User: Fold this.
Amino acid sequence: MSEPASGVALEIEDLDVFYGRVHALRGLSIRVREGEIVALLGNNGAGKTTTLASVSGVVPAQSGRIVAFGEDVTKAKPWDIVGRGVIHVPEGRRIFSRLTIHENLQLGGYLVKDEKVVDQRIAEVYDILPRLAERRGQQGGTLSGGEQQMLAVGRALVAGPRLLMLDEPSMGLAPLIVTQIMELVERINRSGTSVLLVEQNARAALRISHRAYVVESGQITLEGPASELAADHRVIDAYLGA
Assistant:
């Protein structure tokens, strides 16, 4: 695994988020350096998805600060955050099932003004994911779960991410497909894209990450190099098993 660059892709400082009276994030702080894969681990309801939604501008912060590549985006609109290269692949894939693979990929470039750039990025996705190229005229809803996840990631790549945020990309997938997804994440990272990976499959996430955080009840309870957390008895007991 290559060493990340020294710049900071994402800085979250003392973030508080509420859903009505529910205090979902409680002073949460994390950092993703440029070129890193950072895993965010935790059980259902811990605040992982809320963290990504806050960075994306979908869920407003009550207090705290979110900085992406040196710019404060705490109150930025979601489309402005996408325009800065912060791209979110949400849980559940959320592809357009009635559109073709190619049309789904084209939508990934809706903020890119140069059509040639969009076409080039789609060609690169097809090169990375030849299975999508073979089926480019097929409706997205006819794909398997793994293929839909590949399409969701491919669509995000067409947007030109500097920071790619992935929410549970392995959910519901067979072990072989999970391995392929994680290999894809590593390949994307090697191309220079920073990655924030929310994942319940802690073993798979820690295997490919540089660093990791554990979030419980909206607070960070553990952080450190992924290799160290993978050997921490608290992480083993809670997330890895024997």
User: Anything to note?
Assistant: The first strand starts at residue 8 and ends at 19. The mean pLDDT is 93. Residues 36-58+79-240 form a domain with the Rossmann fold fold (CATH 3.40.50.300).
